Amino acid sequence: MSQPTRAAIILAAGFGSRLQADEGHKLLAQVEGRPMIDHHSSGLHRLGVDHLVVVTGYAHHALEAQLQNVELPEGMRLSCVFNPDFEGKNGTSVLAGVNALRQSGHQGAFWLTMSDHLFEPALFDDLAAEFAPKPEREGALMIDRKLETIFDMPDATKLRLAPTDFDIGKELKRFDAVDAGLFWCGPGFVRALEDAKSRLGDCTTSDAVRALHARQAFEFWDIGARLWQDVDTPGARAHAEMLIKGWRATAH
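-> C-alpha cells emitted (252 positions)
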C-alpha cells in the first residue's frame, strides 16, 4: 500500500462471557504466551498503523487501566474511548471510535477489527503489499472462502456473494464465504453507519456493508491461504494456540 492507513479501531466493549478468561477481558487473554492486544498491535503495526483506539464498554475502568501498561511497537500509541451504549450493536462502538479519532485530528480511513480476532501474521504482510482500495470504494472486508477451516461455523458471520443475490449475516443457510473480522473503512463507511443509526436507532457493521455494496462502493478481499481465529470460547483459544504453533514452525 503506497500510503498506509495510520489508524485502527479495536472493538472491545462486549461482555466476553463465553471465553471465561481468567485475565478478565478478551483483549487481555493470553494466547500462546501473548495477550490479544499484543497480537493486534504487532499485526497492525505491519500495516503502518501508529494510532490504536480501543473502544471499551463492560468493566471499562479495569480494562483501560491495564491497557495503559501494555508494551506497544515503537512509534505506536494507544487510546481508549468508552461507549456507554455497549450493550447495543457493534456499529455504535465503531462510531465511538471514529469520534475519538476525529478528536485526535485523524479524519481519514482506518482499519477496524474485533478484540477477539487473531490473524496469521503473514496476512498483514500480504495486505501491506497488495491491498490498495480503488478510489470509488468506501470500505473493504477481508473474507475467507476456506469454509472447511472455520472452527465455529454457527457463530461466523456469513456472506452470499452472488451478484444478484447478496446477503450477510450469521443465520444464512446458503453462503460462499465468511467475514474474517478485519475491515478497511473510508469516510463513506462511517456515513453508512450514521445513516443506519439515524433510521434504525442502532447499527451494525453489516448495515454499512449492505448499503455500500448496493452502491457498488464496497469490496471483498479474499485472504487466500491465510488463517485466522475468533477467540471467543476456551475451545477456540486452544485452536488459536495450535494455529500459532503451526505459523511459527512454518516461519522457521
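The chain has a mean pLDDT of 94.
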